[in-house]
Amino acid sequence: MPNDALKRKLESLLLEEHSRARTDKVAELIGGNPDRFEIAWDIFCNGNPPLPQRMAWVISVVTDAHPSIAARYAASVAARLPFLNHPAEIRAALHVLMKTPIPRECMGDLLECLFPWLQNANLPAATRVYSMQVLYNISEMEPALKPELVIAIETLRMEASPAFQARARHLLPKLKKEIAQMEREMK
Questions:
Q1: Which of 58, 82, 101 is the last residue of a domain?
Q2: Which CATH number is 144's domain given?
Q3: Taking the CB of the first residue and of the last residue of the chain, which one, N or C, has fewer CB atoms within 10 A?
């Protein structure tokens, strides 16, 4: 199927119905094909609403099934993230970043965006939880961030959503163990 025809088909499918079944159908059509993912990415980045929001869900599903296909978009996602406004788009972008290696050149911009999102109680729980996970992933490459992340999570944990608390219960022990290991190595 030529690219223009596939793009029209994907857009048509997304506009017909907004459901998990439709999302799965579009994700299956894209599969692990990099050329098809490129078309989906173009719709996500350049489509008219509601296409980007609906394609966001598809991209999350495809990223779960084929994480390596989204890896080449990590820099693009990181650059775009501060300018996204719709919760579905933000959630999908963070989902991609959770599942793919983050380019070092993007880390500074991501930190400026993610720490405030982590701390903003007015944002959807998924945005805060995914921000926490991406920050943890960054701390794996930049261990000096681990203590700051622990402080932020512990400060927010008790008044946060159940999803936030669950992710905090998962990440805090790992972070504390990694910090203790770093301290032992420094002695």
A1: 101
A2: 1.20.930
A3: C
